[in-house]
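Q: How would the structure tokens look for this protein?
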Amino acid sequence: MKQPDYLCDAITLLRQLIAVPSLSREEAKAADILEKTVNSYGFNSNREGNNVWVMSDDFNEEKPTLLLNAHIDTVKPVPSWTRDPFSPEIEGDMLYGLGSNDCGGGLVSLLQAFRQITSHEQKYNTIYLVSAEEEVSGEKGIRKVLPMLPSIEVAVVGEPTGMQPAIAEKGLMVVDATVRGVSGHAARGEGVNAIYEAMDDLVWLRDYHFAKVSALLGETLMNVTILNAGMQHNVIPDECSFTIDIRTNEYYKNEEVFEFLCCKLKSELKARSFHLHSSCISKDNPLIRRCEVMGMKPFGSPTLSDQALMRFPSFKLGPGESSRSHSADEYIKISEIREGIDTYIRLLDGSDLCIPESNK
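A: Here is the predicted structure in token form.
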């Protein structure tokens, strides 16, 4: 097949996926479409829940394995959409629809590249995996599937990066904080106001800066994003709760940051999880070197992806722009999908995944 055929198939599949709501944990119908499409291409698909994957036919355990990954779920559409988010409309070069950019473009482009690179022998095995629950880091998403797969040498994650390689991404830890006070009548100034008790912690969080700054990812950032206190105007609140969004660079583990906060803050703290660490891949990796030879520029990404759950080298590379993700009237350009398919094929076809021993 020639690339124009791949592009047509990619757009057809993406429009089908947009038309079926696939919010996190509700991806079954979209997974059905993907499974049917993959099988129609002549591959034998595997499925676990709403995760679908396929392995190259000539899989050889003695070869290293490349993972091509994208997610099938979307966030909920924001209220400011001016279009039907589930109506895949094409206007000129733009294809509109929820999930078109994040990350439908990468999903369909990687699939077409998989078809091409597995049509003849490579120095490596290939697995194409579409995972569920990425937007919520769910337990039934890629975390469920990775233990079922063979050992992975390196992964390409099809998030929207403008087809530039994101060789590092920040980690995420969400911490819920609670401050206790004593209720009383506001008119008499009785009690201990939990809001005032929380203020020292809030100001400290606003002003504190972690010392280690990454060349790729910048500072480790903390932001208080939710705050709740009080029941009515004339009652001194006896509890104030707030949520801290923490984005770690590669110099700080989530557990380390949490222990530090427990020492510095008087609030009661509870981390929702610790497993979403920062990740990065060496510039010496053969695929990153090849990206640079092709004129691409590696960078660090502030946003999180399933890459955080991969315990092997990985990087993000996909059509579209991160700034369009989770926004109203989301779109992907057809020309971006065309470029994505072409770039993936040029990058991967004939590549060597292993770093020579002399360079390790």
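The first strand starts at residue 46 and ends at 48.

The CA atoms of residues 48 and 144 lie 8 Å apart.

Upvote if useful.
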